[in-house]
């Protein structure tokens, strides 16, 4: 009996040690906006690489707009937000694309590659509404949530073994590609719905609210946007965005609690613009 138990435990102990070594060998990232610490599976360089590869893979299958009022609007909001992302975004190489599609969707890949679907524009309704969702998405990227999710997933093993992202995304087996795309928030297109955790959603809400305020968009408009998004998700098939960014009942309450600081930043931004 004793002997047998030893045999069962040995692999578990070894697996546990491997996990510990990986855990302490990983980078600890502290979010400069929220102070929240988390382990990440990828270096910023690896994130940039992976984000760029995924961006190309997604866009290759979409109807990408090359000009027009939608592109002008989305580009302007992206530029204003990118300018105020501060320390967290030093390594970002922001790029934005608008996809013609009825899908209610938007995401920002690691490294700062943003994709906005025209179907989300009616829900955004105003430029400040669009800044709400884009600020939220860009906050997922600057907060490195994709690299945190990869760290938590089995894919961390595969990726960390290589240390360098020497393997091109397109060379990996299809199921592994799908797992990665799901973890970094681009999976809806490929049928992988992996909702962000409540913790990541709350952090993206908080950081995104600060971004929009600093960029000169009234943060109070975020409340209306999230209410419209919740309405759009009720009944029938929830939009792609709602599947990967689940609404939680305390979202509006949390936003309201963060509002005084955001309004202060908004007013400072407005004062700074005056001659
Ligand atoms: Zn989100």
SSE blueprint and pairings:
Layout: H1 2-25, E1 27-30, E2 37-40, H2 44-59, H3 69-82, E3 95-99, E4 106-109, E5 113-117, H4 121-124, H5 127-142, H6 145-152, H7 155-162, H8 174-183, H9 198-214, H10 221-233, H11 240-244, H12 251-273
Parallel strand pairs: 3-5
Antiparallel strand pairs: 1-2, 4-5
The structure holds zinc ion.
Zinc ion (ZN) binds near residues 140 and 245.
Question: What would you note in describing this structure?
Answer:
The chain has helices spanning 2-25, 44-59, 69-82, 121-124, 127-142, 145-152, 155-162, 174-183, 198-214, 221-233, 240-244, 251-273; strands at residues 27-30, 37-40, 95-99, 106-109, 113-117. Helix 5 packs across helix 9 (198-214) and helix 10 runs antiparallel to helix 12 (251-273). The strands form two sheets. Strands 3-5-4 form a three-stranded mixed sheet, with helices on both faces. Strands 1-2 form a two-stranded antiparallel ribbon. A hairpin with a 6-residue loop joins strand 1 (27-30) and strand 2 (37-40). By secondary structure, it is mostly helical. It has one domain (31-273). Bound molecules: zinc ion (ZN). Zinc ion (ZN) binds next to helix 5 and helix 9.
């Amino acid at each position: 009996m004793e002997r047998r138990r030893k045999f069962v435990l040995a692999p578990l102990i070894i697996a546990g040690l491997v996990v510990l070594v990986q855990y302490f060998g990983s980078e600890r990232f502290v979010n400069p906006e929220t102070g929240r610490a988390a382990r990440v599976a990828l270096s910023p360089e690896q994130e940039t690489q992976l984000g760029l590869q995924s961006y190309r893979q997604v866009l290759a299958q979409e109807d990408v707009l090359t000009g027009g009022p939608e592109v002008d609007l989305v580009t302007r909001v992206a530029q204003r937000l990118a300018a105020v992302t501060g320390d967290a975004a030093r390594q970002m190489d922001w790029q934005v694309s608008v996809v013609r599609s009825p899908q209610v969707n938007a995401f920002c890949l690691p490294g700062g590659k943003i994709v906005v679907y025209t179907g989300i524009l009616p829900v955004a309704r105003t430029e400040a509404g669009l800044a709400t969702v884009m600020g939220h998405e860009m906050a997922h990227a600057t907060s490195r949530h994709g690299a945190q999710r990869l760290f938590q997933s089995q894919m961390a093993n595969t990726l960390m073994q290589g240390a360098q992202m020497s393997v091109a995304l397109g060379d990996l087996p299809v199921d592994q590609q799908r797992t990665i795309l799901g973890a970094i928030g681009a999976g809806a297109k490929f049928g992988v719905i992996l909702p962000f955790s409540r913790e990541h959603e709350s952090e993206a809400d908080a950081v995104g609210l600060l971004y929009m305020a600093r960029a000169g968009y009234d943060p109070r408009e975020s409340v209306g946007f999230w209410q419209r998004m919740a309405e759009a998700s009720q009944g029938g098939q929830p939009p792609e965005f709602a599947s990967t960014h689940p609404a939680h009942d305390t979202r509006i309450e949390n936003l309201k609690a963060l509002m005084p600081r955001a309004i202060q930043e908004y007013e400072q931004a407005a004062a700074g613009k005056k001659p």
